[in-house]
Amino acid sequence: MTLSNAKRYYPTPALEKGLDILELFACTPGGLSVSEASRRLDRTVSEIFRMILCLEQRGYLVQSPSKDRYHLTLRLFRLAQEHPPTKRMVTEATPIMHWLAQELRQSCHLGIVDGGHVVILAQVDSPASTGFYVKVGSKVDLMHAATGHVILAHQNEGTRARTVDEWRRETKKSKPADLDRHLATIQRRGYERRASYEIAGVVNLSFPILNVQGQAIAGLTVPFVKRLEDKVGLTDVVRAVREASARLSEAMGAGPAADAAPVAASVDAKTAHRARRKSTSKS
């Protein structure tokens, strides 16, 4: 019997009910009362109440201070971080991201696609006194995130189509008319660069993190804020994020890329080349 057949012959209504509740609360940041949850799921208050009590005891839901509604806790997020590939990626990314933040004096964050959203797994602040950052654990609409676009652009057609379909189901929105053209541009360029959807003056630069198959599993993004005293420009940001993303991709199994050569090594090579030219001209 195949897995698809097993799904038809062995329904699990209790599990499906619990997952329906978790998914409902996940997309309702303001929380829900038991009656509101039962109405939205078209189930009786008694059966929803029993499930909610179980989820509360297991730490997935918590009551509001006023006791009139329930909210999703961070337990699911912590479970996701404990998943070995995700945990390993954050472990590998942390020192690279700290280097990147110091190099550019900008914050940076690492995100993955989860359903119709981008979830921020890791974030490092700028060493400067001012800057812009995105909180770890926050969720952003897939179509409103440079991280999401760069991941979509570096996935195969089947994976991309499934991700976009999931976004459509969750948001009840139509696929943007210019999405395919925009993703093709990102793929040719190798990274995403565009003004923030939410904050004026912020330019997001995002590179893909690739696996051994060359498919994007995450995105590394710098929300660039131009400070008057800084000499770092967008060209510097592109160069540094390209190097950081290539190093992390290699750590996650992707083959070494030519772009991954350290910036310092590139500078040393140019210096050596100039020195050879001077030596030749003197002789």
Whole-angstrom Rg: 23 Å
- The outline comes out as globular
In round numbers, the mean pLDDT is: 84
Number of strands: 8
Report, as a whole number of angstroms, the end-to-end distance.
Answer: 80 Å
**Please, how many helices?**
11
CATH class descriptor name of the largest domain: Alpha Beta
**pLDDT under 50 segments (min length 5)?**
1-7, 258-283
Determine the strand fraction and express it as a percent band. Answer: 15-25%
Helix content: 40-55%
Q: How does CATH name the architecture of the largest domain?
A: 2-Layer Sandwich
- Following the backbone from N to C, one meets helices and strands in this order, namely HHHHEEHHEEEHHHEEEHH
Give the strand order, joined by hyphens, for the main sheet.
Answer: 5-4-3-8-7-6
Oligomer: single chain
For this structure, the CATH topology of the largest domain is: Beta-Lactamase
Features:
disordered C terminus, 2 domains, 51% helix, Arc Repressor Mutant, subunit A, disordered N terminus, two-stranded antiparallel sheet, 17% strand, six-stranded antiparallel beta sheet, alpha+beta, Beta-Lactamase, 283 residues, 11 helices
Task: Provide a compact summary of the structure.
Helix content is 51%, strand content 17%. The protein is α+β, with helices and mostly antiparallel strands.
